[in-house]
Design brief:
225 residues; alpha/beta; Metallo-beta-lactamase, Chain A; seven-stranded mixed beta sheet; six-stranded mixed beta sheet; 13 strands; 26% helix; binds zinc ion
Length: 225
């Protein structure tokens, strides 16, 4: 196992296949010691390991105030129910995936794919727009709807001193009818992500990709591959 690490100042990777459990998609943490946000939660059983990674960075998991859920698949969302019970952060997700997250569409969380049981969670803040802006202190974070892999897939991005950082999970897909995937929407979403010209891409299953040319090549590889 690899240790949690800082990507840029105030942005960390605290979970993932090498950091918490083989089934986990990457879990990212950002903010300052008093207000922390998580991007996704891992697959569920690994949540204690994810929180331990937060502590190892010298940060208090009780200060996790928000969780941005990139989409409903269990490798990203399975830890939400326990996180809610232990810490009670605000759970933020797009309307398109709320039914799955809240347990009303079991096949959409892809639990059987991982051989895990999904524990539903109530979503506190339901995103309805194609873009919504949040502030973490002075730091502007844009949440952008990128349907395709699932109907409610979102990315988060912000402009930091080190460049534009894009938290984009499962940009590669895959696409599956059980999940409500939509190839046309997925291609449109990938083009929108290319247009962001991110300098750093914090991905779900491929780690952290930079600089900008590498991010562009990575996204183009799925679009034109
Ligand atoms: Zn997925
Ligand atoms: Zn995934």
């Amino acid at each position: 196992m690899v240790e949690a690490f800082e990507i840029i100042s105030g942005v960390y990777c605290v979970g993932g296949s090498q950091l918490s459990a083989p089934e986990d998609a990457s879990v990212y943490l950002l903010g300052d010691p008093d207000e922390l946000w998580l991007i996704d939660s891992g697959c569920g059983p690994s949540l204690p390991a994810v929180l331990q990674n937060v502590e190892r960075l010298g940060l208090d998991p009780q200060n996790i105030r928000k969780v941005i859920v990139t989409h409903c698949h269990i490798d990203h969302s399975g830890g939400l129910a326990e996180l809610k019970a232990r810490i009670n952060p605000e759970i933020i997700a797009h309307r398109g995936d709320v039914g799955a997250l809240e347990g009303r569409a079991p096949q959409k969380v892809a639990a059987e794919f991982y051989g895990l049981t999904y524990h539903p969670v109530q979503v506190d803040t339901v995103l309805e727009q194609s873009q919504e802006i949040l502030y973490l202190g002075p730091q502007k974070i844009t949440l952008q709807h990128v349907p395709g892999h699932t109907p409610g897939s979102i990315v988060a991005w912000g402009d930091f001193p080190q460049g534009r950082l894009l938290f984009g999970q499962d940009l590669h897909g895959p696409l599956h009818p059980n999940w409500g995937s939509d190839e046309k929407a997925w291609r449109t979403s990938l083009r929108q992500l290319l247009a962001l010209e991110a300098d750093i891409l914090a991905e779900g299953h491929f780690g952290v990709i930079s600089p900008a040319e590498e991010v562009e090549r990575f996204i183009q590889g799925f679009l034109f591959g």
